[in-house]
Structures are given as structure tokens and as C-alpha cells.
Amino acid sequence: MSKKDPASSSYYKEPVPHIAHDSPFASMMERFRFAAEILDLDEGVFKYLSSPEKVVMVSIPVNMDDGRIEVFDGYRVIHNSILGPSKGGIRYSDDVTIDEVKALAAWMTWKCAVVNVPFGGAKGGVRVNPKELSQAELERLTRRYTANMLDVFGPDRDIPAPDMNTNEQTMAWIMDTYSMKQKKTETAVVTGKPIILGGSKGRKEATGRGVVTSTLAALGKLRISPSNTSVVVQGFGNVGSVSASLMYEQGAKVLAISDISGGYYNADGIDIPEAIHYVQTHDNSLEGFSGAEKISNQDLLELECDVLIPAAKEDQINKENAPNIKAKIIAEGANGPVTANADKILEDNGIMVVPDILANAGGVTVSYFEWVQDRHGYFWTEERVNRRLNRMMRESFDNLFMVSEKYSITLRQAAYVYAIDRVATTLKLRGIYA
Ligand code: NAD
After folding, report:
1. φ and ψ at 331, to 5 degrees?
2. pTM for this predicted structure
3. Which is the catalytic residue, given 13, 102, 111, 123?
């Protein structure tokens, strides 16, 4: 049986935050505490939101191809479901810890609240190195994990999605296993499915589209017209290439793009459709792209421009290079591209940062649309998906902008304040059961 990289065909990942690796839960709590203080949150509500609602740990026995039985640890944490059924990805990784899953689950609660989708927050993980398993072993692992979680998952209870090292195929297996047990097809039990199984149109581009919608909203606040905007994009994968392409369509001049092979700069603007065609025909790499001169990824970040979209990976703008950043707006396509200590420097330099929890929330918003469409059994056109996504992203930006002005805080801080206020207000109205 061939060994297969389960991430190879993955293009959708439920957003996950950048978290300090020593204590992810503590770093989530730090942000939570800041927002709680601003809101003067009731001590009891603080306690309530500090602990996850449910933590499920299971052993997953799997018949391996060579006849051995192997046992893996699986987790699912529901942080909070006061806003609706909980939502969050499942990651397969050999360094998953329960502490990390708890932090990611809480982050999903805040993330769903920021974009006003009626979901709570959850996260799941299996402690496994998926590269060491064959496709058949991965299927058995996924099905047994799902069987162990039958009382947890459900379209009205808890809805998983892909995350690190899981993909559309993983979701299809979860959906099938759950459906077999229910004796009916339940497409809405997971999102991030293949379109043929009830996935949503427009989902693949949703994150980049959301990045651009929130960027345009930020430009509007600075009274800069998109057609007069210069843009720099780091990372030319799913999020980066869609963001670059949509900014290009808006008439913006994309001065530079980059990928793992380096940065590509053209003062007259890069022809983005040509660059996309280039990567599609060159093994997904910009290496050798001739429409621009080569620069380093570091130099790219420090270019003079209106908008910088870091859409590659975490920790790219840190306290060393933050003083040299000349962009007016940073829209975080990736998760955690700006470190906590760089935040203050950027703020002091008057740079507006559209935080990841909002900027890349297009993915989770279209996940919500997928769930709605599955429940109706009626599927929208791509145009409808995009229109509704744009509307929700713009409204969310405006909400956070209002909160940031009200309390004189950054958009990142405003995101936490807004989300926690929403959850706490709902809790107050619903009250504590029994
Ligand atoms: P991807 O794998 O499709 O693309 C990543 C790109 O970044 C590639 O072009 C790669 O070459 C480039 N890259 C990697 N290291 C780099 C470096 N050091 N310098 C410059 N470029 C580098 O990934 P993606 O799906 O586009 O995700 C990008 C980021 O956005 C990740 O942080 C991811 O967690 C986050 N995100 C993705 C989604 C989604 O829906 N895909 C949703 C939310 C957040």
C-alpha cells in the first residue's frame, strides 16, 4: 500500500491562530483577559468563558496494513456553544496536545463571533504522523475517530472541518461514517467537503476574497481608492494568489509577490493573471518568473506600499523588521504573521493592521454557507456566495472599526472585545441552565 501525504490535495484549512508553543492556552487567555478588562466583564462570566464546555479524549484502535493493532489518542474540545452548534477543524499531527486543542477551540469561539456566524467554537485533533500511514490506514483511523465521537458530532451539535493534515477526503469519510450510523445522509455534519458531496461553490477562494473585502474596507477608512493603491503580497498559494488577483482586478498596482523561491518586484506592477498562469504551469512555483526582478522575502516586506498582505506563514513581521515596515495597511491573510511585540511598534507608527481573526475569516464564513446550503438541500451560485461573503466581511470590519474607535484600541484588540461582548451578552440573555 502506498504511503500518501494527506495534505497534498488539501486546499482548505479552517483558520487557526498563531499561538505561543510553550503555553497556547495561556497566550489565548492573555488576549481574553485584556478584552474582559475593557468590557468590565462580570467575574462569573469570565470564569464561565475561561473553561471549555466539554473535553473529550478517546483511544482510537486501528488495524494497520501489516496486521498490527496501533492505538492513537484523539481529542475534541467544545469551548462554547452558546451562539450555536460548535465549529472547528480537526488536525492530524504527532505533536497535538490537549492544551493546544483547548486554545484553538476558544479561538474558534471568538472567530465565529467576530463574523457573526451562529456557531460556537471547537477543535479536534488526533496524535498521529499522517505521513507514516497509508491511505487505507488513514481512512480506518478517521472512521473510528468519528465512531468514537458520534455523541459529540452532529449538524445541530458540533461540526468539524479540515485543518492541518486533514482535507476534503477526510471530511467525506467523517460524513459517510456519521451518515451510516444515522441511517441517512447527513451532509451538514462537516464542512470543507468536495462540492459533489455538498460542498460550497466559492469556498476555495473564500479566504483570499475575505482578505480583499476587509482590505478594501480599510482603504475606504483611509480614503484611498483601490485603483490608486500599491500592494505587496507575501506568499502565492491559495490565500496570496487569490488576494493578489482580486486586488489586481480592483485596479491596484501589485508591486511585488513572493513564494518560498523568493520575492518578485516590478515598480510598474506585476501582471497577476500572467503570474498565476506561470505557477500553474511551473509546478506551483514562481521560480524563474520573468515579469519582475528578484528580491529577497525580507526586502519585499519592507517595500514602500499602501497595502501589505502577508499570506505565507506566521512570525514574518517581528520586532526586528517592524520598524522598517512602510505599508499603510497590513491585512493578515496568514495566521499570526505579525508577532505580539511587533504589534505595538506598528501601532506607534500609525499602521493599520487588519487582524487575522477578521481578515482571513472568509473561509469560516463560507463554511457556514456550506452548512446552510446542506440543511436546505439547495445550492447557491458562486455569485450569490461571493455577494453574501462580501457583505458579511464588510459588516464585520465596520463593527470592529466602531469598537476600535469607541475604546481607542487596535482592530486586533477590538476583535476580541467585540467577540467576547457578543458571547457574554448572549449568555446573559439565555442565562445559566438549572
Ligand atoms: P499555501 O500552502 O497554499 O500557500 C503558502 C504560500 O506561502 C506558498 O506560495 C509558499 O511558497 C509561500 N511561502 C511559504 N514560506 C514562505 C516564506 N518563508 N516566504 C515567502 N513565501 C513563503 O497556503 P494557504 O492556504 O494560502 O495559507 C497561507 C496562510 O494562510 C497560512 O498561514 C494558513 O494557515 C492561512 N490561512 C489559510 C486559509 C485557507 O483557507 N487556505 C484560511 C485561513 C488562514
Report:
1. -110, 115
2. 0.92
3. 123
